[in-house]
């Protein structure tokens, strides 16, 4: 089954999602990415989707199914931050982050599960963050949404684990992308000091772990949280 896989990565036009999509292309898989803007890496099919909108997610899956076949590997990667301290955080700051990061995962994985159930095989990988379990001042919305993914993957494992489907969480630490480029320099230096590895990671270091979770070697791993954080969360 896993010889002719169709992989869908949300937010595959840049950052971590783009590196993940490129890794699956290099593995010889058929790969689609969702993007609101831009394009996925070479060798991918780009489809437009906003993960906050169920109809848009449904249309994207339909297009991928028509062009490549049913999706059996899904990587829920699209995510946003709107950082500020609790007292300054508006309802919209909270809702929009949770609706994109956790609600978006719900919409995407729900739609993907149809094809996986039919195939009796599937791989679900959710991109969380070290801060989901570590906590982070100024990120109550983001950390809540990322912690929610752990309960999501574990419940999904209990629902679909008997149908050849695994669901796991990857929790990256600090990765060199546009998201972290926005951080002030002194914050970046402070974070680096706290990371036992003493450096940030490349997006490709996350991609390798995602590809492994989707491989046959990881068939008996489900409901796990795999940190890719240079030791920052100490394995959580
Ligand atoms: P980027 O900001 O570089 O990319 C975010 C991606 O998400 C873009 O492709 C963006 O699409 C997409 N996206 C955002 N909102 C939506 C939406 N409503 N619908 C569809 N797509 C959307 O982020 P990173 O690559 O850094 O992060 C990717 C994931 O990894 C995120 O979930 C993030 O939380 C997580 N992560 C990142 C870390 C880091 O250090 N960078 C650390 C830990 C976790 P568009 O370009 O069209 O806006």
From TrEMBL:
Q: Which family does it belong to?
A: Belongs to the short-chain dehydrogenases/reductases (SDR) family.
Per the UniProt record, one Pfam family is: adh_short_C2
The family database entries (CDD domains) matched by this protein are listed as:
BKR_SDR_c (cd05333)
Superkingdom, taxonomy of origin: Bacteria
Which residues belong to any copy of the Ketoreductase domain?
A: 5-178
Q: Which InterPro entries match?
A: KR_dom (IPR057326), NAD(P)-bd_dom_sf (IPR036291), SDR (IPR050259), SDR_fam (IPR002347)
Q: What is this protein called?
A: Beta-ketoacyl-ACP reductase
């Amino acid at each position: 089954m896993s010889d002719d896989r169709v992989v869908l990565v949300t937010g595959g036009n840049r950052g971590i999602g783009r590196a993940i999509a490129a890794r699956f292309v290099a593995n010889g898989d058929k790969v689609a990415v969702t993007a609101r803007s831009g394009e996925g890496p070479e060798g991918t099919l780009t489809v437009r989707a906003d993960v906050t909108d169920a109809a848009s997610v449904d249309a994207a899956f339909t297009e991928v199914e028509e062009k490549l076949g049913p999706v059996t590997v899904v990587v829920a990667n699209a995510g946003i931050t709107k950082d500020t301290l609790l007292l300054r955080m508006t309802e919209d700051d909270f809702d929009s982050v949770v609706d994109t990061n956790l609600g978006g995962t719900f919409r995407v994985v729900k739609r993907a599960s149809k094809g996986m159930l039919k195939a009796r095989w599937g791989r679900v990988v959710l991109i969380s963050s070290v801060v989901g379990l570590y906590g982070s001042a100024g990120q109550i919305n983001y950390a809540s949404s990322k912690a929610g993914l752990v309960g999501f993957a574990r419940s999904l494992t209990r629902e679909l684990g008997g149908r050849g489907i695994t669901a796991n969480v990857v929790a990256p630490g600090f990765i060199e992308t546009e998201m972290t480029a926005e951080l002030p320099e002194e914050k970046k230096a402070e974070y680096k000091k706290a990371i036992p590895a003493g450096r940030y990671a490349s997006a490709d270091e996350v991609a390798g772990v995602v590809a492994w979770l989707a491989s046959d070697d990881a068939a008996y791993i489900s409901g796990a949280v795999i940190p890719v954080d240079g030791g920052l969360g100490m394995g959580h």
